[in-house]
């Protein structure tokens, strides 16, 4: 299976640079996964596709203001760090620019020395491990010194940092937002709940894989980076009950999908658990957990296009994307949404 099989043409002007003023005012392309039939709706119409007894699963991860810019203590050279993963205590895995300047023992200083990072290990692809040195609470320091790590295809400055968080974001630890959830407002979630739809939350902290393109030509040779997830007992019980009653589990986003499918793959049912997943979902994958998916439009040749192609088919997805381009839908993180069922 070739990575090029998941390519498509996208005019640059369709890449959304800013979020819409009202979260749930985005458009919604509805795709029947088996037939490929497409409808055009507003995101608020999602409620019409949800039924009493269904369970909507959200990822409540919260994005760290994890992009920080500092200087090397010895030379004053400017260095950018993106905090990706908390390894333990104050030790972090980071993406560094320019990485060639950072060796073991290098110290980078941020602000007026309020935060320092000492390199403890050099890895490939611009990755380094650092020990963070500071007084006080790290999150408060990052909120003062850091910015949201927006994807590289977004060139506009984000005026309101909260717009790169879902309204239900709670568990701090992501390097990127689970963007399918950005469309929801508290009011829409209330309406969905009043219809008799269950709403529950899992956590997957989005990491390096979001920023890494597929560089191999053969899809099966791509290696996903691991991301931390967790599921509580009451959520597992609700999801198992939903399955037993023959109702649907609807995942909000590919991060939620990967978490649910990891747990079902490993345990054959939903259980209280946490751990690291590098699950890679591409055509041929047998879904055991989810019955429908709310998602955004994803980058050409990305692992996320492969995931949605596995849930429907490559032909149906690429045809839906072609139609979305023709209809001038907005693409990627701040773009419009799809509902695949």
Describe the structure.
Helix 5 (about 305-310) packs across helix 6 (about 315-325). The two termini are about 25 Å apart. The protein has about 350 residues and is of the alpha/beta class. It folds into two domains: about 5-65 and about 160-340, QueA-like (3-Layer(aba) Sandwich), CATH 3.40.1780; about 65-145, Thrombin, subunit H, CATH 2.40.10.240. The protein has helices at about 140-145, 185-195, 235-245, 255-265, 305-310, 315-325, and strands spanning about 25-30, 40, 55-60, 60-65, 65-70, 80-90, 90-95, 105-110, 115-120, 125-135, 170-175, 200-205, 225-230, 250, 275, 290-295, 335-340. The protein has six helices and 17 strands. The chain has a nine-stranded mixed sheet. Strands 5-6-7-10-9-8 form a six-stranded antiparallel barrel. A two-stranded parallel ribbon has the order 4-11. A hairpin with a 4-residue loop joins strand 9 and strand 10 (about 125-135).
């Amino acid at each position: 299976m070739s990575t090029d099989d998941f390519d498509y043409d996208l005019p640059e002007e369709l890449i959304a640079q800013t979020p819409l003023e009202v979260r749930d005012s985005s458009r919604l392309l509805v795709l029947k996964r088996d037939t490929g039939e497409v409808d055009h709706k507003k995101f608020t119409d999602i409620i019409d596709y949800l039924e009493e007894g269904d369970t909507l699963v959200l990822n409540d991860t919260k994005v760290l203001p994890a992009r920080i810019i500092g200087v090397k203590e010895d030379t004053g050279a400017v260095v950018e760090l993106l905090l990706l993963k908390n390894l333990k205590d104050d030790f972090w895995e980071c993406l560094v620019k320019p990485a060639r300047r950072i060796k073991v023992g290098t110290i980078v200083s941020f602000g007026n020395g309020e935060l320092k990072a000492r390199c403890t290990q050099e890895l490939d692809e611009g990755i380094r491990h650092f020990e963070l040195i500071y007084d006080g609470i790290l999150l408060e320091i990052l909120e003062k010194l850091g910015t949201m790590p927006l994807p590289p295809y977004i060139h506009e400055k984000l005026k309101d940092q909260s717009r790169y968080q879902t309204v239900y974001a709670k568990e701090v630890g992501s390097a990127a937002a689970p963007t399918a959830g950005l469309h929801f407002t508290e009011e829409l979630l209330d309406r969905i709940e009043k219809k008799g739809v269950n709403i529950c939350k899992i956590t997957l902290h989005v990491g390096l894989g979001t920023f890494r393109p597929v560089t191999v030509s053969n899809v099966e040779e791509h290696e996903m980076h691991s991301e931390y997830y967790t599921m509580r007992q009451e959520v597992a019980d609700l999801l198992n009950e939903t399955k037993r009653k023959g109702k649907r589990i609807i995942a909000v986003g590919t991060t939620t999908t990967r978490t649910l499918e990891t747990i079902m793959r490993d345990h054959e049912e939903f259980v209280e658990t946490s751990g690291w997943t590098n699950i890679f979902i591409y055509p041929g994958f047998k879904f055991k957990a989810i019955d429908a998916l709310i998602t955004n439009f994803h980058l050409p040749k990305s692992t996320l296009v492969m995931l949605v192609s596995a849930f429907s088919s490559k032909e149906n997805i690429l045809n839906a994307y072609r139609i979305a381009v023709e209809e001038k839908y907005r693409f990627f993180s701040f773009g419009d949404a799809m509902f695949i069922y």
